[in-house]
Design brief:
Elements lengths: L1 H10 L6 H54 L4 H15 L2 H29 L5 H4 L10 H18 L1 H8 L3 H24 L5 H25 L18 H21 L2 H8 L2 H13 L1 H11 L2 H10 L3 H27 L1 H9 L7 H27 L3 H24 L5 H12 L1 H14 L9
Helix pairs in contact: 1-2, 2-6, 2-8, 2-12, 2-13, 3-4, 3-7, 3-10, 3-14, 4-6, 6-9, 8-9, 10-18, 11-12, 13-15, 13-17, 14-15, 14-17, 15-17, 17-19, 17-20, 18-19
């Protein structure tokens, strides 16, 4: 009954104190993400059996490119999240409705233009060369990519819903939506596998159309019920009144581009330096540590918009106490990562069998990456929530410039192999582990000036 009551409170817009909402979200998210992780554990070996290591590597590389676009929402998602959180904190739902309506129109126009451009240039793109495909059972990759791209384009627009939910400090709802997507995907792939409908085309359509269906249903239900008061309307579109949203979104957009280069180009680099089977090896190691990311995000996710609300209300003591708690959780999770590294070879054999061999050095580098990334996120969540992102903006540009060449140098010329790709990311992120905490302390103590306070 306690879990049910917590879930009920989370669904109610604006219910509960900031701390109470965070605690309830953490409880429900932990349960939801446990099931999310279990579904992912099953999906990975099932997908490898369904497609084989080569075609699965092709799909991972292709889907990572589309995920660039999914995250590349022109910064509108994060900008909207901050502005909605500010409006919710002040109880100004008219302002929230204006921001939301304008964001949907701007994003829809942007996606429409982007989709039109791709349709025009599509006949001149050779995806076999882009993905470095030497052999596959798939006859028409370009046509397949066009279909998947259209599905993804509609997903981009619908995923603005997640920004609204996060601004309202209800990440458990997003977790539930993700769980629905994962379960439906798992069941569908399993059914097709059992009846021997085995093809990259079928797999790709399933992976892309199920999120589209779930997000459409979720948008309809939430805008008819809990978010009816701020549901988008053409009457509330106001470009002039949303200039501050656009300015903030542009800065977040650059951060997103940099994030894509640092976090999401690994598959493409690996498939060009080696082949798609190496992408599969790399991603198995990545997904092995994903449980730690899920658990840590259970505690971290509710705090971005909570930090925005606390910063608007100048409640700095609450922010400091929250950061301390998150740092303690990070220390515990890091100890768990060390244990996962030690027992990684045994875990891989149990999970995916002897089909794939994961270098121990890759597990070490991947574990270090998760530690660094989790630590950085504690402080970037506060900095992003406060809107003081100019320093992060410049830092992101610098690491975006050096990440890809450093990955190639370490992997190819230092002969480290695919492990060198993640080591390059570790090097790029380690400096943020120093810079971001310093900025946080300056802001929270009122001593931030110049670039530290922009």
């Amino acid at each position: 009954m306690t879990l049910f009551n917590d879930l009920k409170d989370i669904i109610d817009i604006g219910s509960g104190s900031r701390t109470a909402k965070a605690k309830k979200n953490i409880i429900v998210l932990f349960v939801i993400h446990t099931f999310n992780f279990l579904t992912l554990l099953v999906i990975v070996p099932l997908s490898i059996s369904y497609l084989g290591t080569n075609d699965y590597g092709i799909w991972l590389t292709l889907s990572s490119i589309f995920m660039w676009l999914a995250n590349l929402d022109f910064g509108i998602g994060n900008g909207l999240r901050n502005k909605l959180a500010e409006s919710f904190a002040k109880g100004d739902f008219i302002k929230a409705k204006t921001h939301l309506s304008t964001a949907y129109i701007i994003f829809a126009i942007g996606i429409g233009i982007f989709l039109l451009v791709y349709i025009i240039i599509h006949p001149f793109i050779n995806w076999e060369n882009i993905l470095n495909i030497k052999h596959t059972n798939f006859p028409s990759l370009n046509g397949f990519v066009l279909i998947v791209f259209v599905f993804f384009a509609f997903q981009f627009l619908l995923r603005l819903l997640t920004s609204i939910i996060m601004a309202d400090q209800k990440p458990a709802i997003n977790g539930f939506i993700t769980l629905c997507i994962n379960i439906l995907t798992l069941v569908t792939i399993y059914v097709f596998y059992k009846i021997s409908i085995l093809s990259l085309f079928t797999y790709g359509i399933v992976i892309t159309i199920i999120p589209l269906i779930v997000l459409t249903i979720a948008s309809y239900v939430l805008f008819k019920t809990k978010y009816k008061i701020i549901s988008p309307s053409l009457k509330f579109v106001n470009y002039r009144d949303s200039n501050d949203l656009v300015v903030l979104s542009v800065q977040f957009f650059v951060l997103q581009v940099a994030g894509i280069i640092v976090y999401s180009t690994d598959n493409l680099i690996i498939t060009h330096l080696y082949d798609p089977t190496q992408v599969t090896i790399y991603n198995v190691a990545c997904k092995y540590f994903y449980f730690v990311v899920l658990v840590f995000n259970v505690f971290l996710t509710p705090f971005w918009s909570a930090f925005t609300e606390a910063y608007v209300k100048r409640e700095f003591l609450w922010i400091q106490n929250s950061i301390k708690r998150l740092a303690q959780i990070w220390a515990i999770s890091s100890f768990g990562i060390l244990l996962m590294i030690i027992f990684s070879d045994f875990a891989y054999r149990i999970w995916v069998g002897e089909i794939i061999k994961i270098p121990f050095s890759l597990s070490i580098a991947m574990g270090i990456f998760i530690m660094i990334n989790n630590w950085n996120n504690i402080f970037t969540f506060f900095i992003n929530g406060s809107g003081k992102i100019r320093l992060q903006f410049y830092y992101a540009i610098i690491i975006a410039i050096i990440n890809i060449p450093l990955s190639i140098i370490l992997a190819k010329y230092f002969n480290i192999g695919i492990t060198g790709v993640i080591i390059a990311t570790d090097i790029c992120l380690i400096f943020g582990s120093i810079i971001m905490p310093i900025q946080y302390r300056k802001i929270i103590s009122g001593k931030a000036t110049g670039l530290w306070n922009k």
